[in-house]
Design brief:
Largest sheet: 5 strands, antiparallel
Shape: flat
Strand order of the largest sheet: 2-1-5-4-3
CATH class of one domain: Alpha Beta
Strand content: 15-25%
Helix content: 55-70%
Radius of gyration: 40 Å
CATH superfamily of one domain: PAS domain
CATH architecture of one domain: 2-Layer Sandwich
CATH topology of one domain: Beta-Lactamase
């Protein structure tokens, strides 16, 4: 019997412990699989980002070469200005050079002011002359292997041939520094991972510490092959990223299992002890029966006393029930009111959430595919432009034009939604200063149409300064855009703000004075039967082939004015011009930003 009591608790302990160890191993395998998949995704992002950014830089060189093929060679200063724009726009460039068919370096623009033609000739000397001549003869982009840079470090060269014209023949050579190029490309890509890039067996770039057990265990390799060269990228997580990706569940499972094993053994021991005590209790039951009989007599006496007390309690309970009914009715009314407020709050939160989701989609999810369409359209024109017939090139141009219009439309929609989802607090705004700033920004557009914009007296009001700038810019831009053929546009902007309070009741029934702003032009005008329609999103009264635009400008104006508690309307006659009237409170009752 003693042996059975000892074996049973230990058996329970080892069974639970074995199950725990099996579960621990399973969770460890699941964590490792998840980490490996995360590293695979990070390697794919590194490969995609390097290929895409390299394409953008090479397309820039190809456009420079194509421009010189189309227009013929020009002055050195003009070529250097265009090459300098490429250097500033795309980090990672070391220099750009124009090389003649004889492989003599004609012009050079460098990021390093100390670099000379001799330095670049030193780089050229590292490549076989037949390789450079073969690259010149090809009608494609050529990427030459890694070589030593003049200022130290590794780099590579991209050659874009130009065949048209005697002066423009040769090729454009772009020299890239590996370290700076990849640091700019991978700056915000997979920040928690180390990246090493190899050209063959030679290491040309490293981000993160060298070697270590993490690289050997978790490192994954991906191949990057831009324009005929092949680079290998090794990616593995840094210790901080690896620690963040590992779950504490296996360790928690192991500790919990150990505790459960001990508890199981302890419960089995307790059960055995309970059975022993049950036998002892049965023996004591006989003695307790006599004591229970005596207690029963005492309970009968207690019930008699309890009956009298129960009567008094019932009387008091009836009084409390009446008071409770009244309180319940009051609570029900309050609960209904609170539920109504909660429903309204949920509806408002849902509406704001939808607007925020729309802004996110418009700023990222919709614009990113458009950038891909434009980038691949440029690549199609670059690589296949000569293989396409006239109709094919026309299709590519239409695709690029449609993508640009879509990007403008998404930007206008984002501006429209941010009027209420991203407001700023109201403050004193000098509308005259805002209007002069807008006219300065539109100076090029004004000169292009030979127009004039006259800014007269404008008041200072409490408003959102950025949205006031958007309002005036949209109205003035429309006045310049919709002008009559052969008639220079004339735009006049002025406004007033009453000094007294006697006219407030006539304006809006409040004690807040209202100011009026007018924007008047001599443009094409419109039929006033469309007055409501022009302030709706996407509404246009003229075709896109006559006047460009998305139909969102006046809708944004109306949303800004309504957010400030004002109104906007217009008077117009076809062929004689339009006058927009904006009425806004001079002071805002609520100084905080309101939707």
């Amino acid at each position: 019997m003693l042996l059975v009591r000892l074996i049973a608790p230990w058996s329970a302990f080892f069974v639970v412990l074995s199950i725990t160890i099996l579960l621990y191993q399973g969770f460890l395998m699941r964590d490792e699989s998840h980490i490996e998949q995360t590293i695979t995704d990070a390697a794919a992002r590194v490969r995609s980002e390097i290929n895409t950014r390299m394409d953008m830089r090479i397309v820039g060189l190809a456009r420079l070469a194509q421009r010189w093929e189309d227009t013929g060679a020009s002055s050195q200063s003009q070529w250097e200005a265009e090459a300098t724009l490429n250097l500033r726009h795309f980090p990672g460039y070391y220099s750009i050079a124009w090389v003649e068919p004889s492989l003599r370096i004609r012009w050079l623009v460098s990021r390093e002011t100390s670099q000379t033609l001799g330095d670049l000739r030193t780089v050229f000397s590292q490549y076989d002359q037949s390789v450079l001549q073969a690259a010149q003869a090809r009608d494609t982009v050529t990427v030459l292997p890694v070589r030593n840079m003049p200022q130290g470090g590794k780099g590579f060269m991209v050659l874009v041939a130009s065949q048209d014209g005697q002066d423009g023949a040769g090729f454009i050579a772009g020299l890239f520094a590996f370290q700076e190029l990849l640091e700019s490309i991978l700056k915000n890509i997979t920040p928690g991972y180390a990246v090493v890039l190899y050209d063959g067996e030679e290491e040309v770039y490293r981000r993160g510490v060298a070697g270590g057990p993490d690289e050997a265990k978790w490192g994954q390799e991906t191949i990057i092959d831009p324009y005929g060269v092949t680079w290998r990228a090794q990616v593995w997580p840094l210790p901080e990223q690896l620690a963040a990706g590992q779950s504490v569940l296996p360790q928690a499972m192991l500790v919990s299992g150990l505790i459960m094993s001990i508890l199981s053994a302890w419960l089995v021991a307790l059960a055995q002890a309970a059975r022993r005590r049950a036998r002892e209790t049965a023996l004591a039951y006989v003695g307790l029966s006599a004591e229970m009989a005596e207690r029963q007599r005492a309970e009968e006496a207690l019930r008699a006393a309890h009956a009298g007390l129960e009567l008094r309690v019932q009387e008091r309970t009836a009084e409390l029930a009446q008071a409770n009914d009244k309180l319940q009715r009051e609570n029900l009314q309050r609960q209904r009111a609170e539920e109504s407020l909660a429903r309204q709050a949920r509806e408002l939160a849902r509406s704001n959430g939808e607007l925020e989701h729309f802004a996110h989609v418009a700023s990222h999810d919709l614009q990113e595919p458009l950038r891909k369409i434009q980038a691949f359209g440029d690549r199609l024109k670059l690589k296949c432009g000569r293989d396409l017939n006239e109709q094919g090139r026309d299709y590519v141009e239409r695709m690029q034009s449609a993508a640009a219009r879509m990007q403008t439309l998404i930007s206008d929609l984002l501006t429209f939604s941010r009027v209420t989802t991203a407001p700023r607090p109201f403050a004193a705004v000098d509308l005259a200063a805002v209007a002069h700033t807008i006219v300065s920004d539109l100076e090029v557009s004004i000169q292009r149409v030979n127009g004039t914009v006259q800014i007269d007296q404008l008041p200072t009001i409490e408003a959102d300064s950025a949205q006031m700038g958007q309002l005036l810019q949209n109205l003035i831009s429309n006045a310049l855009k919709f002008h009559r053929e052969g008639v220079p546009p004339r735009v006049k902007v002025w406004g007033t703000c009453p000094q007294g309070r006697e006219t407030n009741a006539e304006l809006n029934g409040t004690d807040t004075p209202q100011c009026s702003i007018w924007v008047e032009d001599n443009g094409i005008g419109f039929d006033e039967q469309y007055l409501v329609q022009i302030f709706q999103p996407f509404q246009r009264l003229v075709g896109r082939d006559q006047y460009e635009g998305t139909g969102m400008g006046l809708a944004i104006c109306k949303k800004i004015v309504e957010r400030h508690g004002g109104t906007i309307t217009a008077r117009s006659t076809p062929g004689q011009g339009t006058a927009f009237t904006v009425t806004l409170p001079c002071r805002q009752a609520n100084k905080e930003a309101r939707p």
